């Protein structure tokens, strides 16, 4: 009698395959709910059109550049868009926790970092689409990008780093708080001050001294500075390099915290 051969052990997919599958899942969800993208673009349209008209006369003051207030405002709106979108990234995890999908993911043979990274890739792709549309809206409103393609790519890179940071922070908070209300409340506590304690809407020279001091350590301000000088073609590469390194380090730390948070969540359920 021939002995039955033992079943071959199932091989675990590579980390990159796991990430790709998780990203694909989130992309499909976004594709089936396109209204989310359109709603997220209503704010930048309002900011550019409404703020641009209301504060148009400020463009005659020093510090706003040749394009007036619209040209100054567009890089700020670009970063505000990715900041607000990133702050909502954790809501998808809360939905997964409430529906039981998160428990299924955690019981599957997949790395915890893959779960976080896959969703982050989907969020960054979505933010790139949003960023491109914001720049088009800004151009139609009258902004001109003298930095050319290189300046646009530099602005998109800064937006991506900022988005990665706040997406991961939002995910970490969602996994720890496990509440939609708590996530929204905590996000607003940080998002609104970050916006107004920066040069997003106003040049540093027109801000109070203490706000200027806070702005120097504000990640949103770092990204805005990179984008604004890049789009204008007036890069100070020393400052750009420093801010890019700081944003990259912050994004890496936020990603690490998000991965630790999902492991903490798994231990508690």
Describe, in plain words, how this protein is organized in 3D.
The chain has one domain (15-268). 75% of the residues lie in helices and 0% in strands. It has helices at residues 15-32, 35-40, 42-54, 68-87, 91-99, 101-107, 112-141, 148-177, 180-196, 209-215, 219-232, 237-268. Helix 4 packs parallel to helix 8. Residues 35-265 form the ABC transmembrane type-2 domain. It comes from Naasia aerilata.
Topology, please?
Blueprint: H1 15-32, H2 35-40, H3 42-54, H4 68-87, H5 91-99, H6 101-107, H7 112-141, H8 148-177, H9 180-196, H10 209-215, H11 219-232, H12 237-268
Helix pairs in contact: 1-7, 3-4, 3-7, 4-7, 4-8, 4-9, 4-11, 7-8, 7-12, 8-9, 8-11, 8-12, 11-12
Query: Strand-and-helix sequence, N→C?
Result: HHHHHHHHHHHH
- Number of folding domains? 1
Helix content: over 70%
| N/C terminus separation | 48 Å
Name the shape in a single word. Answer: elongated
Number of helices: 12
Sheet with the most strands? none
| Total strands | 0
Mean pLDDT: 87
Beta-strand percentage range? under 5%
Multimer state: single chain
Gyration radius, rounded: 21 Å
Structural class estimated from helices and strands: mainly alpha
Low-confidence stretches: 1-10
């Amino acid at each position: 009698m021939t002995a039955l051969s033992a079943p071959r052990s199932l091989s675990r997919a590579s980390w990159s395959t796991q990430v790709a599958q998780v990203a694909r899942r989130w992309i499909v969800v976004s594709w089936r709910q396109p209204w989310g993208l359109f709603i997220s673009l209503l704010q930048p349209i309002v900011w550019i059109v409404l703020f641009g008209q209301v504060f148009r006369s400020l463009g005659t003051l020093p510090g706003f550049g040749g394009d007036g207030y619209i040209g100054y405002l567009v890089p700020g709106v670009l970063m505000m868009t990715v900041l607000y979108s990133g702050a909502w990234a954790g809501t998808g995890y809360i939905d997964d926790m409430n529906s039981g999908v998160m428990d299924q993911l955690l019981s599957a043979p997949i790395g915890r970092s893959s779960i976080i990274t896959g969703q982050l890739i989907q969020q960054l792709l979505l933010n790139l689409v949003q960023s491109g549309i914001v720049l088009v809206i800004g151009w139609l409103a009258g902004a001109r990008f003298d930095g050319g393609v290189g300046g646009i790519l530099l602005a998109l890179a800064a937006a991506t780093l900022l988005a990665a940071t706040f997406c991961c922070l939002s995910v970490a908070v969602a996994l720890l708080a496990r509440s939609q209300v708590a996530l929204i409340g905590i996000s607003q506590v940080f998002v609104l001050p970050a916006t107004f304690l920066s040069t997003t809407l106003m040049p540093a020279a027109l801000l109070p001294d203490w706000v200027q001091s806070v702005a120097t350590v504000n990640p949103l301000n770092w990204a805005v500075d990179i984008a604004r000088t890049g789009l204008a073609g007036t890069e100070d590469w020393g400052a750009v390099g420093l801010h890019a390194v700081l944003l990259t380090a912050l994004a890496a730390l936020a990603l690490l915290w998000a991965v630790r948070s999902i492991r903490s969540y798994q231990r508690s359920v």
